[in-house]
Amino acid sequence: MGKGRLEAFTDGVMAIIITIMVLEIKVPHGTDLAAFSSSLPILFTYALSFLNVGIFWNNHHHMLHAATRVDGKVLWANLFLLFWLSLIPFVIRWIDETHFEALPIASYGIVLAMASIGYHWLQQAIVAAHGGKSMLAVAVGRDVKGKLSMALYIGAIGLSFLNQWIALCIYVAVALIWLVPDRRIEAFAKKE
Amino acid sequence: MGKGRLEAFTDGVMAIIITIMVLEIKVPHGTDLAAFSSSLPILFTYALSFLNVGIFWNNHHHMLHAATRVDGKVLWANLFLLFWLSLIPFVIRWIDETHFEALPIASYGIVLAMASIGYHWLQQAIVAAHGGKSMLAVAVGRDVKGKLSMALYIGAIGLSFLNQWIALCIYVAVALIWLVPDRRIEAFAKKE
Amino acid sequence: MGKGRLEAFTDGVMAIIITIMVLEIKVPHGTDLAAFSSSLPILFTYALSFLNVGIFWNNHHHMLHAATRVDGKVLWANLFLLFWLSLIPFVIRWIDETHFEALPIASYGIVLAMASIGYHWLQQAIVAAHGGKSMLAVAVGRDVKGKLSMALYIGAIGLSFLNQWIALCIYVAVALIWLVPDRRIEAFAKKE
Amino acid sequence: MGKGRLEAFTDGVMAIIITIMVLEIKVPHGTDLAAFSSSLPILFTYALSFLNVGIFWNNHHHMLHAATRVDGKVLWANLFLLFWLSLIPFVIRWIDETHFEALPIASYGIVLAMASIGYHWLQQAIVAAHGGKSMLAVAVGRDVKGKLSMALYIGAIGLSFLNQWIALCIYVAVALIWLVPDRRIEAFAKKE
């Protein structure tokens, strides 16, 4: 089974998610700087979400580039990942309408954590399709960054009920960890 | 006529349908667990619809993968399928705004039943384009799952006026039947 | 310059237009048959618009399939076509919110007429890129269907101020004329 | 690393941006010519934005066509460009809801200026990936049009607090400068 159409569908869904998020946030209620300033937190959350979807796309791009075949399990793991990413615009709207309360901020972490689990599952499914001793399996290795992200998200979900701004800071920290593209697979791609 | 652009257009439309559904559902009206709980039925319907579109995409992917040519009839059957799928977000919004009443739930079944008919028509058109004795015709066979789905949908449409939750359970059951990718065509693809 | 990315961008835009139209129409205001019935005219307009965009996509598909090269003029003509198609969801919303008044119905005709002019311009630009004596030029011929459509649209625009339902009937008639894919170019593609 | 998926993702995002802008503008509040006339400024802004995204797509198309490889920096520069383009629908909605006040019009210029900076950064990243003496580097040259656009946008941002219509005129002027596709790279593509 070819990977081309999986990539095309994923690109489509991610391109739409990253673009329709902007439909979900309210414009400033006036045209003075005060009105604009009160929109800054949600615009910042939008930018963070844009970055997060961009990171998922970027890593997906690298991983699929190194893959040579996909099977049924890969398709379903990919759909699971896309499902959770598709909830990002929904959570952003909830955050915007309820002004950064604890539960919506925690939900944002849950959605990102589930998407990370989906990505991890997808990675496992792709590695399994290539064999445990394939270069892709070696390249993925122990996936320290992936496991660290999940641990941080789980911590942030709990912390958001204490102080939601700490949770937001952790979400930003996880994004910064991933800003650098996955050098393991990039190195693998170069060796190839 | 190449199948590439048909796949690309279908991927695009399905990717958009699966993603914009989330724009149609209302966020919880508060930030406590009670508000979130009252959103669970529509979130569940969203997840079911995401799964349904994912199943259609998955089967479409498998069928087109096995196809080698498309003609005008295939294009129109495909457009008919996409038309009914495009109404899923509309029905979800109706269900959400009217709180799971009988007619919207029945309409959800009608839309899925018409999409199934569209998929069946597309299958027939593709088989016809390849000849009645082609391996694709053999692989599709009697299409038991397709016919069973349509029968279940028609039953659910009627039952939704008795009890809409029974109808929803049947919609879930049909999705579970299809969760497994179409082994007939997958087997065919392997033989090839 | 390759035609691949022009096709991909056009497929993307048309896939989005055909899918987001459904976001623009209001769901029935109740869950009884009376509420549903009052939504039938706009649902019918939605179906007609879906068909119209499908026809443009289908003809675009055929024409580009026969084309071997595109230039800057083709890109701009294509963008002009997409601009007018992108206004279809806007006009549908206007029709829905104002209940089928004369000016919105006339505007629907203006948008379709301008899109037809855009398609004609695109056709001219593609033929010009292939030379006046190319097989594509022969295949397009006098473009009777294209000119007839434009004449009918212009007539319908005027008539919609007399009776908007007559205008709608003409829009349906034009769609029916085009339902058959462009046999001229299909015949050309077969000869090739 | 292949440029194909970068092009596909960019095409997807730009196709969505150019199409969903129409969801952001309000339809006329009536069906007479007066109601329609009062919508003309926002429809004009929509057309200008459609043209601007079209220009970015067109230039992106030309530049990537001439490119033979992309790296991580190109991916991030591209994402930065797409981020700012994705804010265009947001600013249009703000302009529409607040009736062409100074700050929203200035924000429109900021978004376009940041997108231009993103495009410039992308151009630099692509040239760097091909080497400073590559034909692509020669083709891009001193990028007079890019620098002129940025200067005009910065001027317009300041002027919009004096008179927002002057700023809008400058935005139109910049679009007209770019209407002609980038002949430098087109010439380069021909030489190749």
Q: Care to count the β-strands of chain A?
A: 0
Q: Name the overall outline of chain A.
A: elongated
Q: Percent of residues of chain A in helical segments?
A: over 70%
Span between termini of chain A: 22 Å
Strand content of chain A: under 5%
Query: What structural category characterises the helix and strand content of chain A?
Result: mainly alpha
Average pLDDT over all residues of chain A: 88
Q: Secondary-structure element sequence of chain A?
A: HHHHHHHHHH
Biggest interface, CB < 8 A:
A-D, 33 and 33 residues
Poorly predicted parts of chain A: none
Rg of chain A, Å, rounded: 18 Å
The largest sheet of chain A, given as strand count, sense and whether it forms a barrel, is:
none
Helical segment count of chain A: 10
The oligomeric status of these chains comes to homotetramer
What does this structure look like?
Four copies of one chain form a homotetramer. With 192 residues, chain A is mostly helical. Chain A is built from ten helices and no strands. The longest helix of chain A is centred in the middle third of the chain and has 29 residues. At the A-D interface, α1 and α3 of A face α1, α4, α5 and α6 of D.
